[in-house]
Amino acid sequence: MKQFNTEKTAAKSYSTKLLARRWLTEKIFELELTRPSSFQFAPGQRIRFCHETMQRDYSLLTTPSDSTLALCVFNVEKGQFSPVLTAAEIGRKFSFTGPYGYFTYRPSERPAVFVATGTGIAPFLSISRSGVTEFTLLHGVRTAADLHYQDFFRRTARLYVPCLSASPDQAGAIENGFGGRVTRYLKAYFPPGTYDFYLCGRQEMIRDVTLLVDEQFPGSLVYTETFY
Amino acid sequence: MKIYTGGGDCGKTSLFSGERVNKSDLRVEAYGDVDELNSLLGALVAFLPSGQATLSGEIQRIQSDLLHVGAWLAVTPGSPASSELQSITQDHSKGLETAIDQLEQELPALKDFLLPGGHVSAAWAHVARAVCRRAERHVVRLLAGTDEDEASLQLQGVIMYLNRLSDYLFVLARYCNKIQGQSDRLWRK
User: Fold this and answer.
1) If we measure between CA atoms, which residue out of A110, A168, A122 comes closest to residue A142?
2) ipTM above threshold 0.95
3) Is the sign of the CA dihedral A145, A149, A151, A153 positive or negative?
4) Strand order in A12-23's β-sheet?
5) What pTM was estimated for this model as a whole?
């Protein structure tokens, strides 16, 4: 498997235009944007979206060979930035800088375990769309309605486990569904061994899984990307 | 954005290459020294007089190089993460040699040992020099335990860079005293 290299993707400033908005759930939507011809990135990297004096980082959903860019946005109703993206008209121009980050796939002999909460699924979409398939994915969400992209990951992941934290009763109706947090699944059901863990999502999940890896999966590697 | 993660509350940390190691690990000691050195250079720049933009820029370039050095020290030999890093090459050390030569042209010849100190900026440069030497010693120990060719080559580049940087910081301390109108304080045996 080819390794995605970030070394030659130094951050620069770009202009982009909103092409489409697609709602995935009540609060989460995907934005499709034009891709500046000179913008290069590696799967798993993020861009810094700019609006007036505000900046927010978003991981890209698309691959380096796609002609457009896409982001996954959680609309925080009383937030400052996501409402701007929620209300922006198609065709509106934005600026962004990037790419940023080193959260890229690094092939190894150990099995890869991707752990995401909420929209932290985004970099794994880009990585998997770019050709990585031999991985386990644990996706922590509140309810089954939040399981966007599940059809894609059921096709590409070696094992896909949706973890429903707020509606454990829904888990039985979903293939491989688990009623509870991703940390509880790892602690109770994940086989002992050494793995390459890729963690993306809420800070609390990253902390809890990291400490669990120390305790239960010694010798494993941990790569992280925090979403706030 | 919260700065704390809590992932290190039990005394371990993640290397850039993903391994979980004790915070007392030699690799962590080494990049911790480089972080300390970088912070000291920041303190030094804060005490430079106005009109030293060129020197400030030069030190800030070194601070940027030290981030690359720290990244190398946070990667275990053979890790695929190393392909994402910028190499520390002989060119970096040559750049320091050029900077040393330029500063020395401004200074009188030195024939005795110096007492570290003088102006506060010079004092910081001396502290930075001593920390740089400590970083170098830790990297030498890391190299001794490394049998992977590419990693050895990179660590050798880092050692050369830190060795030259220590020399730079010694000359920089003298230069800081000079631009502040202070003489070298010679060792009276």
Assistant:
1) A168
2) no
3) negative
4) A54-59, A46-51, A93-100, A12-23, A28-34, A68-74
5) 0.88
Query: Which CATH architecture does the domain made up of B12-186 adopt?
Result: Up-down Bundle (1.20)
The pair of structure tokens assigned to B17 is 């290459």
The position carrying tokens 């580049």 is B157
Dihedral sign, CA of A112, A118, A120, A126? positive
Contact A228 B83 (CB under 8 A): no
Sequence-ordered list of residues with C-beta below 8 angstroms from that of A148, at least 6 positions apart, any chain: A24, A25, A28, A72, A121
B71 phi/psi in degrees, rounded to 5 = -65, -40
Give the residue extent of every domain in chain B: 12-186
Partnered with residue A33 across adjacent β-strands are: A18, A69
- Which segments within A52-181 are labelled E, that is strand? 54-59, 68-74, 93-100, 112-117, 135-141, 159-164, 178-179
| CB nearest B5 (choices: A196, A203, A218) | A203
Residues of A within 8 A of B64 (CB-CB) are none
Question: Closest Cα to residue A199, out of A212, A214, A210?
Answer: A210
pLDDT digits (tens, 9 = 90+) for A182-205: 999 999 999 999 999 999 999 999
Sign, CA dihedral B95-B99-B102-B108, equals negative
* Residue B115 near residue B3 (C-beta atoms within 8 A): no
Q: In this complex, which of B10, B12, B18 lies closest to A196 when CB atoms are compared?
A: B18
